[in-house]
Structure formats: C-alpha cells, structure tokens
Amino acid sequence: MAKKPWDGRFSEKTDIIVEDFTSSIDIDKRLYSYDIQGSIAHCRMLARTSIISEEDASSLIEGLGIIKREIDRGDFRFDKSLEDIHMHIETGLIEKVGKVAQKLHTARSRNDQVALDVRMYLRAETLNTIERLVMFEKVIVDLSKTHIDVVLPGYTHLQKAQPILLSHHLMAYYEMFSRDVDRFSDCLKRINVMPLGSAALAGTTYPIDREYTAGLLDFPEVSANSIDAVSDRDFIIEFLSAASICMVHLSRMSEELILWSSSEFGFIELPDSFATGSSIMPQKKNPDVPELVRGKTGRVFGDLISLLTIMKSLPLAYNRDMQEDKTALFGTVDILKECLEIYIKMLPKLKINKEVMRLATSTGFLNATDMADYLVTRGMAFRQAHGCVGKAVAYASSKKKELHELTLEELKSFSSHIKKDIFDILTTEQMINRRKSIGGTAPENVKDAIDRAEKDIAVNIEGLFVDDE
Ligand code: ARG
Question: Which CATH code fits 122-195+225-359?
C-alpha cells in the first residue's frame, strides 16, 4: 500500500475497501497527458516567480516528461491505493527525480488541478466534436446534392402530409447539426478558463503568476473567483446538455432510418456492412446501428441528469461527490464520438429507393392542400375551401380514388370554381416547385440552402484547421 500524503495526520491505515471505493484511477487515467502538461506549466510559473529554483523546475519537468513517455508506452504501473491520476504522477515523479518532486505541489491543490485537467481535456474533445459534426454536415449536404431530384411524402403525425424533396428533409438535419456546432462552440468559451492557482479554495499566499500559466496553456482567461473555480462544473453540464440535444437529433434521424428501411416503407436500404442479421430468421436484415444510436441517446441523457443531480445540493466549494463528474463526461464523449463516426461512414452508403419514394407521393391525398389553395386563388375563403376539399376527399376515398383521379365533372360537383387547369397543380412536381416561400421545399430554395451550407462548412473547416495549428 502506498504512503499517503496525509499520513502525518492519521494514526490508522486506510481500509482496503475505502481505497477501492475512493479510487478513481481507472476512470481518470485518461487525463494523464493534460495533468502532465498542466504540471509542466505550473513548474515553469513557479520558477519564473522564484517560488522554486530554475534547477528544481528543470528536474521536475524532465521527470514529468519521462512519466509521460512511460504512460504513453503502457509501462507505467497503476495502483488503486494511489487514488487518482494526480497522485500517481506525483508519486511517480518521486521515483524519477527524488526529493525535489515534493516541491511540485507548491501553491496548488488537487481541487484546482483536477478542474484544470478536465477543462483541458474537454477543450480538446469539444474541438474534436465540432470537427466531427462539421464532417457529418458535409456528408448530409453531399447526400442532399446527389439526390436533389428525389421526392417523397413529408409526414406530420406520421401520416402522409405533403410532398417534399428528400434533400429538403435532409437539409432539415443540416440545420439541427449546425445549431449543435454553434452550441458546442459557445460552450468552448466557458470551458476555456484557467482555474489553476485557486488552490484548495481560497487562493494562495505564494506570489504566483496565474496569467503566465494561462498563457503557457493557451487559456485566454483566468478564473475570477477561487471558490467558484474549484466548485464549478457548469462547463461540463453545458457540454452534456449540448451533447444531449445533439443526440436527440441523431436519435430522430435513427428513428427515420429504422422506419424507412422497414418493408412497410421501403424508402431506403441500409448498407450490408452496417446492418446485422438474425440468429434464427434467415430473411432478416436488422437496423441495429441506428437502433443503438437511438438507445445510446438514453445513456447520454442519463449522464446529464446524473451530473445535474450530483451538483444540485453541494455546498461550496469542492466536495468529493464531484469526482463522479468524469464517469458521466467520459461516457458521453465516447458515445457522441462513436455515433458521429459511424454515421459519417454509413450515410453515404445508404441506398435510396427513389421510385418507391415517388410512388408513395401518389397516394394519401397529398394534394388536398393544393386543391384548397387553388379554390382560394379563385376567390373562396380558405376555411370554406378546406371544407369543400374535405368533402371531395371523403367522396374520392369512397370511390377508392385519389383527387387527381376524379373526373373534371366529379370535381366540379364540389365547387363551380373548379376548371380544367386544376389538374396542372395537383401533380407532385407542381406541389413541390410552387412552395417557394423562404425555407420552403421548392428545388431552387433547396439548392440555395445547399450552396449556403457548403460555404458555411468551408468556413468552418478553415477555422478548425487554423485552430489546429
Ligand atoms: N480525484 C479527485 C476528483 O476527481 C481529485 C480531487 C481530490 N480533491 C480532494 N480534496 N480530495 O475530484
């Protein structure tokens, strides 16, 4: 069992069951490179402010580098009795550089250290998330472009409503994911605040230079209140909220992929490489990938609720409850990453059954609104026209026909306003082409939306590229 930094105060050894219970190393070891980077910056600052000597700082930095390489290679020994990644690295450092290692923790506490590590980790992961989202937007826009001539029924209440372009439907998802990009970018501002130097909760008596540390670690801002800095987890909650909303979008898309690939719809076919079969029913091709994306969404919501619940009654400042934040955060980061990656690969391989989609627009009275609009242009009030077409639908339905399959005479029996030209506007093409209002499904609108999206994506990709440098 390793020696504890607090052994001086205690007369009994920690019970093994307590070591297991309090240890977080299995979870937080993924923070090691940020912990080391943060410690190196801290050392530099301590030397610059003459709190430790340059010589001591150099040995500490050298030792930290050795530990980093050991962990990278998988040669570092993890031990539950050392609790967390911070204690592991500090203890490892004693083995590498001896007594001087004991100076590393001057003017800081694990409370501000863990806040720093998580912020650095989440800053990188948020940028990765944004990058993946932009790639996914590109996939969606490319698909919209390729299938610009595909029509299908749009639905409300999962009942056929009006015909739309498939590209218009896909571009609705583009809008959702571009709001997600905005949300994650906005989160980034609040993640990007440097907490180190808040120490346990009240700041420190040493003449530290927090702005210097922030500069070394590329933080544009230092936290303003030491108590808040060590007890704030809002930035994680925000990320989990943005991730939950993003998962809602992925889950809705999944639901449609599942429905559309059913034999009842038959609108699409999932690629064989992204589907699974049944162990008993030879005919089956199951949409397990979208089902799992939909299912994992529940876990992401769970992570958000879990952190909100962990935080809601905590007195200021740090409490050990907060150690549980990482289980929630890492879980969500992994799920979101995986779901986006799999959809980026899968979506371009979808088989679009253009003919089935088109055929579906020819039944279900999708042109009823257009017939009512026709009557309005001929002077009827919309409510009256609505009633009139309602009757026509009931009549056609009883004859097992669609509105455009009725004869002119039959149609005229519902209103004297009806002339032969009504048939021109009852076609799927016309219904789509005439919906030119801003944001409507007319092809020219959708093409413009695709153009705008392509420009935005190009700007975003350029921005990400610059940030990476
Ligand atoms: N493993 C702890 C966490 O993740 C680090 C902070 C420990 N601070 C303390 N006062 N025990 O929250």
Answer: 1.20.200.10
Q: What 3-state DSSP class applies to 427? A: coil
Q: Do domains 7-106 and 122-195+225-359 have the same CATH topology?
A: no
Average pLDDT of each block of 10 consecutive residues along the chain (469 residues)? 74 90 96 98 98 98 98 96 96 96 96 98 98 98 98 97 98 98 98 98 98 98 98 98 98 98 97 85 88 98 98 98 98 98 98 98 94 95 95 96 96 95 94 96 98 96 71
Cβ of 119 below 6 Å from ligand 1: no
Name the residue of 6, 18, 84 to mutate for ligand 1: max ligand atoms within 8 A of Cβ.
84
Homologous superfamily assigned to 7-106: Fumarase/aspartase (N-terminal domain) (1.10.275.10)
Q: Do residues 323 and 23 lie in contact, with contact meaning Cβ atoms separated by under 8 Å? A: no
pTM beyond 0.85, yes or no: yes
Ligand 1 center to residue 460 CA distance, Å? 37
Q: Which residues contact 116 (CB under 8 A, 6 or more apart)?
A: 34, 38, 194, 195, 196, 217
Is 431 touching ligand 1 by the criterion CB < 6 Å?
no
pLDDT at 463: 85
Indicate whether residue 24 lines ligand 1 (CB < 6 A).
yes
Dist CA 443 CA 456 (whole Å): 20
Spans of all domains in the chain:
7-106, 122-195+225-359, 368-426
Relative to beta strand 221-222, strand 268-269 is unpaired
Beta-ladder partners of 154: 162
Select from 239, 202, 218, 21 the least CA-distant residue to 116.
Answer: 218
Nearest CA to ligand 1 atom 7: 110
Residue 326 to residue 362: CA distance in whole angstroms: 53
Q: Rounded to 5 degrees, what angle do the CA atoms 203, 208, 212 make?
A: 115
Burial, 318: exposed, middle or buried (Cβ in 10 Å; 0-12, 13-18, 19+)?
buried
pLDDT at 278: 77
* 368-426 maps to CATH 1.10.40.30: yes
Q: Is the CB of 112 under 6 A from ligand 1?
A: no
Residue 3 alpha carbon to ligand 1 centre in Å: 17
Catalytic residues: 157, 278
Prior bond to 317 cis, omega within 30?
Answer: yes
**Shortest-distance atom of ligand 1 to CA 83:** 1
Q: Are 163 and 154 in contact (CB under 8 A)?
A: yes
Question: Residue 3: its pLDDT value, please?
Answer: 74
User: Which residues are within 8 A (CB) of 154 and not within 5 positions of it... i.e. 6 or more apart?
Assistant: 160, 161, 162, 163, 164, 169, 441
Strand, coil or helix: 193: strand
Residue 113, ligand 1, Cβ within 6 A = no
